[in-house]
Design a protein that fits this description.
mainly alpha, 10 helices, 1% strand, extended, 2 domains, 2 strands, 290 residues, Palmitoyltransferase
């Protein structure tokens, strides 16, 4: 969790215990939004008047920079104001599970320190939870659902040509103030952008290294015949599985569409040869470990 999300979580927990003071504390969270808008306005000023208006000498190049920058700024502002005016999407009430299903799930979930800890479920409990949710999904008319979405967008639009021009021209006194504006913007976006964006990238890089999704890192995948099996084939092979030629741009269409085209690493080597997938129409049976 980023520091930004952590602030909102702490305020929400405090508001539950102290409703009155928590209400005013929640209003102060708008200061973060005001700081974001002020930072965005300052970065637009620096980009237009300092980068494009001062450092760039070619009007054609400046025009291209401005078009690209404002396209990205428009998308960022669209997301920001959509969240402000329309709020965050919620799960419709008719997709919620019944109290009976919730009670069954809790009966197969570890309970520690006054809360249910799903991450500490045993393989047997995980299987029971999966069966309960599968039956509930079928009753609701949902065949299969997978949620693996995490996204934040930030951007820093600048050019190394500004620093090159600053060094080549040797007009340090005249260029010092514009360059300082640019450094302030880059430093601000770099420092405050690291925690929400940088931590997210590092987190997902770690997931790619072991070939897991954000769902599987919290609750390991339940694979047939071997509860200790996973998709971790080693860092290099994992990245080849995800970013192999064409896979990221042209995803594979499978009959199940559940990621089972990934090879499985069985703990027991004998299972690797016992379970295989036969592709109809292929000249040879393709051993995938599934």
């Amino acid at each position: 969790m980023s520091w930004y999300s952590g602030i909102y979580t702490r305020v929400r927990e405090y508001k539950q215990k102290n409703p009155i003071r928590g209400f005013f504390l929640a209003r102060l969270l708008n200061a973060l939004l005001v700081a974001q808008v002020a930072g965005l306005a300052y970065s637009i000023y620096v980009y237009l008047y300092v980068v494009c208006g001062y450092f760039l000498q070619s009007s054609m190049q400046a025009t291209i920079y401005i078009c690209v920058y404002f396209s990205m700024a428009f998308m960022a502002l669209w997301c920001l104001f959509s969240a402000l005016f329309y709020g965050v999407e919620r799960i419709p009430p008719h997709w919620s599970v019944s109290a009976e299903v919730d009670a069954k799930l809790k009966s197969y979930t570890p309970f520690e320190n006054g809360r249910y800890v799903v991450d500490k479920s045993t393989p047997e409990q995980t299987v029971q939870q999966h069966r309960i949710l599968t039956r509930a999904a079928l009753d609701l008319g949902v065949v299969q659902a997978e949620c693996d979405q995490a996204g934040r967008n930030k951007f820093v639009a600048t050019s190394s040509e500004c620093f090159v021009r600053f060094i080549i021209n040797r007009n340090y006194l005249e260029d010092a103030i514009p360059l300082c504006h640019l450094i302030v913007v880059m430093a601000a976006y770099g420092v405050f952008g690291y925690y929400p964006l940088g931590e997210m990238l590092i987190f997902h890089f770690g997931l790619l290294s072991i070939n897991e999704t954000t769902c599987e890192q919290a609750k390991p995948a339940v694979l047939k015949f071997d509860f200790k099996a996973d998709y971790n084939l080693g860092k290099m092979k994992n990245f080849q599985q995800v970013f192999g030629w064409g896979l990221w741009l042209f995803p594979l269409n499978t009959s199940a569409e559940d990621g089972m085209h990934f090879r499985i690493r069985y703990v027991d080597p004998s299972n690797q040869m016992r379970f295989k997938r036969v592709i109809v129409g292929s000249t040879n049976n393709e051993v995938t470990g599934v």
